[in-house]
Specification:
Number of strands: 16
Largest sheet: 8 strands, mixed
Shape: globular
Number of domains: 2
Helix content: 25-40%
Bound molecules: zinc ion
Length: 386
């Protein structure tokens, strides 16, 4: 596709194992500057400057050195989705106003991170005159995390998971470069001041998803369960029309348009038992756990789609599209799932009961007016699951 990305500089700690260097080269050979999305074409103008594969102590010391001048993507804001949906229709927002009361969320950047390095930094020699896109990766920690994922991915042979997770992590960081690589220093400084994780981590994971293959996508979806909710928004994005956000980052390069673009992608909302149900274009009736609090949804009618939630129950006769993977703390009970692309094998906390044995629509009707505290218990009891 292009050799500008392939030529990206690579630096390694002395004891980095060969396989990680090989995987890095393999991965980089896939990327080029042209981005085609539906009918839109974009071009990434800036090459990626450097990738560092480092052992734990080198990683931590360079990470610290870089973050004194450029505290990028180690923390940020995660505004509630209500806040976007309440935005007035306009093309830009006042970023200062929009983010002023948000709490700072700290991210776990111990496996890998993306860092734009500006010319005033003396942490590492610069390769370009304005800013360098730098990625730090710690293969040792990725290996450890891969071990923890092994029994959670029955679709994949366990000795493959390390390579897949390495590719997922590095592709996510490259996704940040694809998001921000066309920005000017001034625009990037603005992002740095108002780091919107819903947008930035959502976009990086969305880009990664678009580049990854099926096995890697399963790893990405499973890994996202252990991360902040902003890392899971791509699960929704991947079924949405992302043109507006791509325009903001790759064509207009105007960050003040980003919150409105996100608002338009989320669409309007309905409330279903206290949960947000999106009514954006083709997504009428998507139940989402944007809050990351989990909860219980009992829907007597078929639901179009459900995105991953942290804990609780989801009981409905039919799910058209199950989006994302669900931790063991979630129980889903349904008669039919038409599509579950983020799983190769449906795990046992997702119970698909044959309708002729247990008609969920009828059982929900029988208990619809039950006391809220007892409702789940009585439905599950009648279905023989409690
Ligand atoms: Zn990230």
């Amino acid at each position: 596709m292009c050799d500008r990305m392939i030529k990206c500089n690579k630096e390694y700690s002395s004891n980095i194992q060969r396989r990680f260097k090989k995987w890095t080269n393999e991965l980089l050979s896939k990327f080029g500057p042209d981005i085609t999305y539906s009918n839109n074409k974009y071009q990434l103008r800036r090459p990626l400057s450097r990738i560092f594969l480092l052992n734990e102590s080198d990683y931590d010391s360079l990470h610290m050195k870089l973050s004194t001048k450029s505290d990028f993507l180690v923390d940020g804001f995660e505004p509630s989705f209500d806040k976007y949906t309440q935005l007035k229709d306009a093309s830009v927002v006042n970023l200062e106003e929009f983010y002023q009361n948000e709490n700072i969320i700290t991210l776990d950047t111990s496996l890998a991170c993306f860092c734009p390095v500006f010319a005033d930094s003396d942490a590492i020699p610069m390769m370009s005159s304005d800013f360098d896109s730098v990625i730090l990766v710690c293969p040792d920690r990725i290996s450890e995390s891969a071990q923890r994922l092994e029994n959670k991915l029955p679709e994949i042979e366990s000795d493959l998971i390390e390579r897949l997770l390495f590719r997922v992590a590095l592709t996510h960081e490259i996704g940040h470069h694809y998001t921000l690589g066309n920005f000017s220093v001034t625009a990037l400084r603005e992002v740095q001041k108002f780091k919107d994780l819903n947008i930035l981590e959502g976009m990086a994971n969305w880009f990664a998803y678009m580049f990854l293959d099926q096995n890697e996508r399963w790893v990405q979806a499973e890994f996202a369960i252990s991360q902040r909710p902003s890392y899971r928004h791509y699960l929704y994005f991947k079924h949405s029309d992302m043109s507006q956000l791509l325009d903001v980052f790759l064509k207009d390069m105007d960050y003040s348009k980003a919150p409105i673009a996100l608002k338009n992608i989320i669409g309007g909302k309905l409330n279903l038992n206290g949960h947000m149900v999106s009514v954006a274009s083709k997504f009428n009736g998507v139940a989402m756990d944007w809050s990351d609090k989990g909860g219980t949804i009992i829907a007597g009618e078929e639901i179009k789609a459900l995105t991953t939630m942290k804990k609780g129950f989801f009981i409905t006769p039919k799910i058209d599209l199950l989006i994302g993977r669900f931790p063991q703390e979630v129980t889903i009970v349904t008669n039919e799932i038409a599509n579950a692309p983020d799983y190769g094998k449906i795990p046992d906390n997702i119970k698909v009961l044959p309708r002729d044995k247990a008609d969920i629509m009828t059982v929900i009707k029988n208990h619809f007016s039950d006391d809220n505290n007892k409702k789940v218990e009585s439905i599950l009891t009648e279905l023989g699951l409690y």
